[in-house]
Structures are given as C-alpha cells and as structure tokens.
Structure prediction request, 179 residues.
Amino acid sequence: MNYYGCTFILYELSTPFLNIHWFFDKLNMTGSKAQLYNGLTLLFTFFSCRLVWGTIQSAFVYRDMWRAVFTAPTAEALSNPEIMGFANGETIPLWLAVIYTASNVTLNTLNWHWFFKMIAAVKKRFEPAKATEKVEADGAATADATGSEKPTASLRMRRSTIEEMIVPDSEELREGTIQ
Prediction:
C-alpha cells in the first residue's frame, strides 16, 4: 500500500488554490477577476486530481485489495524481502480491507459532494444580482420594478455562516472593534 500513499497525495494539488481563494476573500477581493481565474483553476485541479485521478486510483486500490484478501502471495514474491517482508505467506484480514475500502469510498463521496458544492458557490457568486426589489432605509415597505409596495416581513435575511460570526472581517480588524 506504500505505492498508493504517493499516488493519493496528488489529491492535494488543488489545496494551494483553495488557500489562495480564501485569502482573496479576506483581502476584500471577492468577485475580482483574480479570484475568478483562481476559482476556475481550483475547479479544474480539484476535478482533475481528486475526481478523475482519484476515482481511477481508487478502482486500482479496490482491485488490489480484492487480490490481497483472496490470493496468497506467490513463493517468488515472498522471496523478495523488500516487497513482501511482512506478508508471511498469508492474505490480509478481511476486516482490514473493509475498513480501508470503506474509508476510501467515504472520502471519494465527500470529494464529489464538495465539487458540486463548489460549482454551486461559483454560480451563486458570479450571477448578477436581481434588481427587482428595493429596500427602503426605514424598512417600512419595499417597491418592486412595477412600483407596487410589499411589506418587508416577506423579505428574508441571509443566514450568517459560522465563519462569518467567528472570523472578523478586515473592517473590524482595522477599527479594533472585535468583541
């Protein structure tokens, strides 16, 4: 399985782009062209490395695990201590293969889930805002494009994320108003 350690570390090729994306947000460069290009590069490397490469390599892991559980090493393979030094001529336990395979399936499922979440986030971030409603400063009523008024009770505020509540924005840092 040492071979697969080096193979699966290639998943991390997308991580620097994720970190750069985060820095763009913290530097108030959200929605900039630089963030757009970085986001597209992030999506491309995430898709290429984690989904395409990772799924193919996972299939190879499943195949090798099947062989390791149901096929004992050959005498020729056992004679090479560098490769089979710990095998002792036995197959690997089924519970070990199940845990390893279940972990791999779980992580691959999360990668697919995160990819679709990233696509949705990019779509949402770069879609033009709808200009059909205007909120008045006093909050008494709103007027849509036709001029008819609607009560503000029907408007919903965007929920704050945990990160927005915990991580201060740069204005709070500059003013020193962090509580």
Q: What stands out?
A: The chain has two domains: 2-127, 131-179. The chain is about 60% helix and 5% strand. The helical segments are 2-8, 15-26, 33-70, 75-78, 81-84, 94-126, 162-166, 170-175.
